[in-house]
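User: Sequence for NAD(+) diphosphatase below. Tokens please.
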Amino acid sequence: MIQDIAPWRLRNEFMDAAPEPGDLVIDMSPEGVLTPEGELSFPTVEEWRAFGMDAALLYAFRLVRQGESGAAESTEERFFLALREKGAEAPAPQGWRRAMPAALRGEFPGPMAYAAATGWHLFLWYDNARHCGRCGEKLAPSATERAMLCPACKAVHYPRIAPCVIVAVTSGEKLLLTRYARPGAKNLVLVAGFVEAGETAEEAARREVMEETGLKVKNLRYFGSQPWGFSGTLALGYVAELDGPDEIRLDTSELAEALWVERSHIPPCPDSASLTMEMISRFSRGEL
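Assistant: Structure tokens for NAD(+) diphosphatase:
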């Protein structure tokens, strides 16, 4: 999955740090991340400033690589997020481009794809957390934690993370696969949805399966989780068994199709970045 970047690790502890020339800049805009044409990497602070860029640089996180013994962190890359005023121009110098991070996840797997996804999550939050939702005053970054502070009403605003569930529903040798109704959705995926207020993740899993397909499930068990920065979510994966008839009653407002697929007939997954594709692949191999 996208977060599986060993021997690298993403360390997201907050630091009140100033950028140095060799640090890396994640320069985001609504058009995507600034990266060289044909690859996925980021400019150093020195390169970025030589481009004539004008934006505040705020510490985001670091990537560290374990030493051969596994006991020491021998390599470190620090990342800073470029934050512009709302609506400010975000150019791409010659030889560079702006690309949406989600489109790069399968093309360039590895630690930089994970950094781009996490950077996108932070960019969207900072971009939408410019003014206090309580009083409307302009917010300022905290010097002690990853938060935005209101100087007027003293409200503290933290990054938004939306929990969602992904459910692999099985019936013997068959897996329930679905396809979203939204334009451009072509891949077969698992039932998924957001956790509602006052609801456990397990309750959300049962509810989403029922709402989208009309099926009841039992023997729900936890599979794993995944930070998915492209949509600002934390995905929680579950495996469940069909409980009752297997007739599907499709919610056409959410799904274009839902079908039972035999283990041996599951199509190859387009990439291994997502929790959904990891769960589908494991079922097809008899590991789920």
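The radius of gyration is 21 Å.
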